[in-house]
Amino acid sequence: MYQLLPQFNAPQDSNLPISEISSDPATTIPSECVREAVFAGGSFWGLEAGFGRVDGVIKTATGYCGGTLKKPSYREVCEGKTGHTEAVKVIYDKRKVSFRSLCDIFWEIHDCTNKDYLKFGLSTHLRSAIFYSMEEERKQAQESRIGRQMKLNRRIVTKALPIEYDFCMAENQHQKYYLQNNNRLCESLNLRSTEQFVESTIACKLNGILAMEARSRIEKLTAFLRTNETMAEETKLVCKEIIEGSKGK
Known about the structure:
Blueprint lengths: L18 H4 L11 E8 L2 H9 L4 E9 L8 H5 L6 E9 L5 H10 L19 E5 L2 H15 L9 E4 L5 E2 L7 H4 L2 H7 L4 H6 L1 H10 L3 H14 L5 H14 L3
Parallel strand pairs: 4-5
Antiparallel strand pairs: 1-3, 1-4, 2-3, 2-6
């Protein structure tokens, strides 16, 4: 797995070329158009990847939500003693995707009828929940849930919960899990700290694509290359190698 510098530390080499960051699409979005949402749906690795592929999502981060401990560790959360659940923070451009649309997508990228999410004790860190910060979001989450329930013959166990405590960032190794498992691609992006990894839109998109099955990965990555011509040449080269390596699988 790719080795990041300690959490939220800047690169030690100030001359390190971080061309990917300077051309990151997120830097051109007006601040008034940026919104955030928090979702929980089982393991945060897959959930982060699923949201990362969505058009309009510009950043994602894995973490813990719903508990009172300020800086819980993954082990503490998994032991079910902190009240936290694995969650994903989604930063999005409201001009391209709405909170309601994200809720609709949420049902597609995890099993919202899994009864294991209702258990208490050791498994409390795995939940299905939509966290809201305002009444309008609660209403939209509820409307989305009703719409989804009408299409299913099993009861949805997802809860809509207010964000009562801060979202706690997960450890380095849990950020962009699928991307971190491709060292060459990570190195080509020149992202050295957890903060850079979390803030990068391109890392967000690539992580989502790498989590897909082979055929979809080829299609999505090919389209991604066409629309991101300003990426570093080394990054483009590694992406093309991934496409070739995915053929026939």
